[in-house]
Amino acid sequence: xxxxxxxxxxxxxxxxxxxxxxxxxxxxxxxxxxxxxxxxxxxxxxxxxxxxxxxxxxxxxxxxxxxxxxxxxxxxxxxxxxxxxxxxxxxxxxxxxxxxxxxxxxxxxxxxxxxxxxxxxxxxxxxxxxxxxxxxxxxxxxxxxxxxxxxxxxxxxxxxxxxxxxxxxxxxxxxxxxxxxx
Length: 182
Ligand code: G3D
Ligand code: MG
Fold this sequence. Notes:
This protein has five helices and seven strands. It is an alpha/beta fold. It has a single domain, classed as 3-Layer(aba) Sandwich (Rossmann fold), CATH 3.40.50.300.
């Protein structure tokens, strides 16, 4: 019964303006279990994590690309997105401008380079900074619907709140789009 473990390899990207918490989210998610491969010429860290999806007895190798700086992005863009199947679109709930660039910049690029079937979810990060919040949960939810994101989750990369859920939801949504999960 358990012998047929399905195997998948998904490349995903974490997108959003500088300092929204992309690297922090990845670091919190992978904890100690990572192998990092920094590619100076690409300006990107390539990080791997293996997860098991019990529901369908599948093992998924996630290959996460994290840009080390924004400045090289324009040069490596096509390579960055090549073979990518999913994205976390991240904004900072304390900076409204990072919310506005999700659609105008990051999703636009994702759609341009990742043709057909690309899966993305919207992430509002830094919810621990309660007094500085300027983007409400309701606005985030509404926006996620507008841009047709598969899901919307608010996180604190600092305290690990909802971080695991953000990545596992993305994996589930990718599998759903592939018809592996109903
Ligand atoms: P980036 O990879 O998107 O550029 P980073 O962003 O992960 O480097 O994070 C940028 C800064 O925001 C870091 O602060 C980091 O500690 C902080 N940060 C990330 N996520 C959270 C969060 O959920 N809550 C809070 N309070 N801070 C967060 P520094 O000071 O190291 O530059
Ligand atoms: Mg970073």
